[in-house]
Structures are given as C-alpha cells and as structure tokens.
Amino acid sequence: MRSSAELPDQKPEIGYATQYGNARTIAPGVLWLPMYPGHGYLVGESGGPWAVVDTGIPGQSERIISAAKARFGKDSRPEGVYLTHGHYDHAGSALALAAYWDVPIYIHKMELPYVTGKAVYPPIDPTVGGPIGLVSYVAKHWPLDLRDYVRPLPETGALPGMTGWEVVPTPGHAPGHVSYFRKRDRVLLAGDALMTVRLDHLWDALRRPHQLAPPPPASTIDWIMARKSLQRLAELQPRTIGAGHGIPLSDNNLPMSLESMAIHFNPPFSGRYICEPALTDENGVTYIPPKTADPLPKIVAILGVAAIASLYYLRKKRNS
After folding, report:
1. Which of the two ends of the chain, N or C, has the fewest CB atoms closer than 10 A to its terminal CB?
2. Other Cβ atoms within 10 Å of 266 Cβ, number
3. How far is the C-alpha of 44 from the C-alpha of 54, rounded, in Å?
4. Nearest to 190, CA basis, from 223, 220, 208, 167
5. What pLDDT, in 10s, does the model give residues 63-76?
6. Which has more pLDDT, 142 or 213?
7. 283 with 118: CB under 8 angstroms?
8. E strands, the chain, in order
9. β partners of residue 33
10. Full set of structural domains in the chain with CATH
11. Kindly report the CA angle at 145 between 141 and 148, in degrees rounded to 5?
12. Considering only CA atoms, which of 90, 99, 152 is closest in space to residue 121?
C-alpha cells in the first residue's frame, strides 16, 4: 500500500467539549461512541427523532443505552439501529439494543444472509501481513442471528430517525457495506470503508496515529470494489469523517486527503483476496478463492532453528 507519508496530514481538529455519558459530539446532532475495537454513533437532536449507527462488539449495549439516555432522555427511544455491515465488531450489540427499545435493525439486503444465520462471511485472511495479519490467526467471524428485528434498508431512501442522511453503497470490505452521508455539512459515517488509523503498518500507526487509511486488510474480500468505494466517498468531499476504527477527523484538507488516498490506493502485496475476490449474492457466498501460501510457519520454523542454535552455542561456550 502507498505510504501514508505521501498523503496530506489530517489533524483531529474536532472539539470534544460536549459529552453525554461516554459519547462525544463530532458534528451537530452526531455523537461518537468510542468503543473497542469498533465504534458506534448516535444521530439526532434532543427532543427529535434519532437513531443508532453501528453498535460495537457484544456487551456494549449498556454503554450505548446510557449515552442515549443522557443525550435524548431516559424515556426516549430511537427510530432504528442502522448498521454499516454485519461484522461482529459493528453489529455485535445490535440485537440487545433492538430488543431493549423494540425497534428495527436496518442493513443492506446483501448483508442479510450473514446476520440471519443463513451464511457465514468469507474467512478472515491472516496472510496479508502486518500486525493485523498476525491477530487474524486467532480471529474469526462470529455468527449473528438478528432475524427477529433486522430489515433491509428502505428502498425509498428515507431513513427513519436520520433525516437529511443518505445511504452510500461502499462494498468491498463486506458484500453489502454502506456508509451514511449528510450532505448539508458533509459529515460521513464510513464504517469500515476506510479507517482513520493505520493498522496494517505498525510503524505508521505509532508515528501518525490519526490518519486516513484503507479498510481493514484481513477482512476485506474484494479490493477492486474497495477502491471504487473509496473513490465514491472521495467524490462526496466529506469534511468530517467518523469511521469504525480510529478517532473522528475534521479538517478543511480532508477532502483533498481522501481524494489522494483514493487515487493512489493499492491493496496489500499479498493475501487470499488480492488476485481475485470472494463472490457473493443475496443468499451468501458463492465462491472463495483458494488459500495463498502462508509465510508464518516458515518464519516460525526459521526462528525456532535460530533459537535452538543460539542456545546450543551459548551452552557450548559456557562449558568450554
């Protein structure tokens, strides 16, 4: 991938003076819920209709409910829970929230098989390299069954509780991934179509923790579509971006930075989905590319031999 040093700097210029519980205002009527590993958002004004966008991993519902009560009132409830996609770190607490408030969960129709128990996402790819690749050896897609509450996103374009927002299809990371965009002040809730922290290169993440970055590499199944989705988002010229990973960014240079990343974007050098994507339809996965050569066993073997040789050398030297 292209080095982040080639992109204009993005500075986190958002002020977090207004807080409601653990939620922080990033734009008028938009609250960021910092959670690990995936963030959530509350959208709407106090006294008016509102909604939840993404819910983090399982077990985050109490934090979200607490923040919502502080912002909208203890007896208020959202018009719905909206998901950018169905990965467990974004949809993990959706069922608990929908059941608590008795509201629908909205998601793109291409994501329905994966959140209704009918299908499982293509496997996470640990061979993309970097720290994320290493973590992916023990990661997997957790099955979710939201069928009692889940609905496809309204085809009319009207989003209950999200007046002024539009759905932007951004597949690539997941088959039916979407982002949410408010045109009047160009606020983008991007899910995993992009990140605002670079996790594939550890040095970049430590040196510049706040930066635009491509989608999570190990769980992106179609890099051609991921690039097209970034280009689509760049055309919107957002001035505030809240992503699923990394802190929100707000900067007048943000549109130029996103455009530059979309133009120069390249997939990882290696990985299962680099040469060909996983294929899906409305029923689930139809094709998964074969596994690529995994360098980790060879690396472990080399390190093991080196460690044994070092121990042998030290013991021999000590006994001589």
Report:
1. C
2. 11
3. 14
4. 167
5. 999 999 999 999 99
6. 213
7. yes
8. 19-20, 23-27, 30-33, 40-44, 50-55, 81-82, 105-107, 150-152, 165-169, 178-182, 187-191, 240-243, 249-250, 279-281, 284-287
9. 40
10. 4-293 (3.60.15.10)
11. 160
12. 90
Cα torsion 122, 260, 243, 200: sign: positive
Instruction: Determine contact, residues 167/158, Cβ cutoff 8 Å.
Output: no
For 114-164, list the strands marked E by DSSP. 150-152
The two three-digit tokens of residue 170, written as one number: 């951004």
> Could you tell me whether strands 150-152 and 165-169 are parallel, antiparallel, or unpaired per DSSP bridges?
unpaired
Q: Which residue has the higher pLDDT, 246 or 181?
A: 181
- Higher pLDDT among residues 20 and 44, named by residue: 44
% helix, strand, coil for the chain, step of 5: 30, 20, 50
CA–CA gap between residue 187 and residue 165 (Å, rounded): 9
More confident residue, 154 or 316: 154
For 178, 215, 262, the CA distances from 107, given in Å and listed in that order, are 8, 19, 25
Q: Give the residue among 179, 200, 295, 296 at the shortest CA–CA distance from 242.
A: 179
What is each CA distance from 295 to 40, 129, 203, 276, 309, in whole angstroms? 35, 9, 21, 19, 21
**pLDDT band for position 97 (50/70/90)?**
very high
Q: Are 143 and 156 in contact (CB under 8 A)?
A: no
The letter for the amino acid at 164 is G
Q: How confident is the model at residue 6 (pLDDT cuts 50, 70, 90)?
A: very low
Q: Which residue carries 């759905």 as its tokens?
A: 167
- pLDDT score recorded for residue 15: 44
Residue 2 pLDDT: 38
Q: What percent of the chain has pLDDT over 70?
A: 77
